[in-house]
Design goal:
With about 375 residues, the chain is α+β, with helices and mostly antiparallel strands. It contains 10 helices and 17 strands. The strands form 6 sheets. The protein has a 4-stranded mixed sheet with strand order 1-3-2-6. A 4-stranded antiparallel sheet has the order 12-15-14-13, covered by helices on one side. The chain has a 3-stranded antiparallel sheet with strand order 5-4-7. A hairpin with a 4-residue loop joins strand 13 and strand 14. The two termini are about 25 Å apart. The mean pLDDT is about 95.
Length: about 375
């Protein structure tokens, strides 16, 4: 996947939140302030101040005049991946974001998948918008057009492995066979059709779990009737998140979700337990050091957050269950590098490492000017 983009740099945490209502509250507070107070709330950086104009993000409606002159209407929040397995909301206004990566917004649609480079690869249908890693879109253009793969790879794999090979097939193989290496993730390509089919089968299961029902798919479920449920609603604000291994119960204050396999509770990403990080992100506005707009958030624990937990627990439990099978997967005899070179697959051309020119719609530049791309 030659084209890779660095992660979005938000520059100010208050532009993202676990619920869209919080973003509306923060926007109202910011636009209602004036002078020095607005500056303080905005948290200017070298890249963005209230005097900065910026183009509208592709596919989004937001004002492009200087924020200090005309904030404009509230930009409707969009769903993003803020942290591993943590879907939150973002204000899609480029005037508020230090580095929004508009090239990714141009190819963001219902067909797109984003691969995030972490120690274990993460795939999401939502735009990654956090401290995650480099991002590799599956497609270089909207509508699922032009795969972000080395030119010539799909025909070569189809010829050698006996069948039509799609970009999503290659992604599934990457999930099954890719491993971290000294130069990033390394993906051995097999010359054995049987190992290819086995890798695709494993990779499709991994992909389905990670996507969590996105793009119209069926949400994954735990086998054997062990579906986790909210057994007790959260009342008040939970004083912490915990786990009882004997009863397989996840607790949030007086709220409870069960059954929760121990593997889901222990599941880590970037060195921290995912469930603990998920809870901490929803309590961030209540931290002692939170101030300004980042301190604005719900006064009571939203029931919708508790309702998210069974699906998240299911995802983590299924990934933990698949981990031994993935670790034991053997790609088989590799395709020789000389064959990839002879077919023109390696090295990928320079143009394949750059974003495609996408001119599907007009984009408003700073101050309402037409953006020339």
């Amino acid at each position: 996947m030659p084209w890779a983009v660095g992660g979005l740099r938000l520059g100010r945490d208050w532009v993202a939140a676990p619920d869209p209502a919080t973003l509306r509250t923060r926007w109202s507070a910011l636009t209602g302030a004036e002078g020095a107070e607005r500056e303080r709330l905005f948290r200017p950086s070298r890249a963005r101040t209230t005097a900065s104009g910026a183009a509208a993000l592709p596919g989004q409606r937001s004002a492009t005049a200087r924020f200090a002159d005309a904030p404009g209407p509230f930009p409707e929040p969009v769903r993003v991946l803020r942290a591993p397995f943590d879907e939150q909301w973002l204000l899609p206004d480029q005037r508020l974001i230090d580095s929004a990566r508009p090239e990714l917004w141009r190819v963001r649609d219902g067909y797109q998948l984003f691969v995030v480079e972490m120690p274990e690869l993460l795939v999401t249908a939502h735009l990654p918008a956090g401290r995650l890693g480099r991002i590799r879109p599956l497609h270089r253009r909207p509508g699922g057009a032009e795969p972000n793969l080395a030119p010539g790879l799909l025909p070569l794999l189809g010829e050698r492995l006996g069948g039509w090979v799609t970009a999503e097939d290659v992604l599934c193989w990457i999930l099954a066979a890719g491993r971290p290496g000294p130069r990033g993730h390394e993906v051995p390509l097999t010359a054995d059709p049987e190992r290819w089919r086995a890798g695709l089968e494993l990779g499709h299961r991994l992909l389905a779990v990670q996507l969590r029902g996105a793009r119209g798919g069926e949400p994954p479920r735990l086998p054997g009737g062990r579906r986790p449920y909210v057994r007790a609603a959260v009342t008040g604000w939970p004083d912490g998140i915990g786990y009882d291994a004997e009863s397989e119960t996840l607790t949030l204050g007086d709220g409870a979700v069960s059954p929760v396999p121990a593997a889901a509770w222990e599941y880590e990403a970037q060195g921290v337990r995912v469930l603990e990080a998920w809870f901490a992100a929803r309590c961030a506005h209540r931290a002692a050091d939170a101030d300004g707009l980042a301190a604005l958030g719900p006064a009571g624990w939203p029931q919708a957050w508790t309702s998210e937990l069974p699906a998240l627990v299911t995802t983590l439990a299924l990934l933990a269950a698949l981990a031994p099978e993935r670790a034991a997967f053997v790609p088989g005899p590799p395709l020789p590098a000389s064959e990839l070179t002879a077919a023109g697959v390696l090295p990928p051309p320079r143009w394949a490492r750059r974003p495609a020119s996408v001119l599907d719609h007009q984009e408003e530049g700073p101050g309402g000017q037409f953006a020339l791309l």
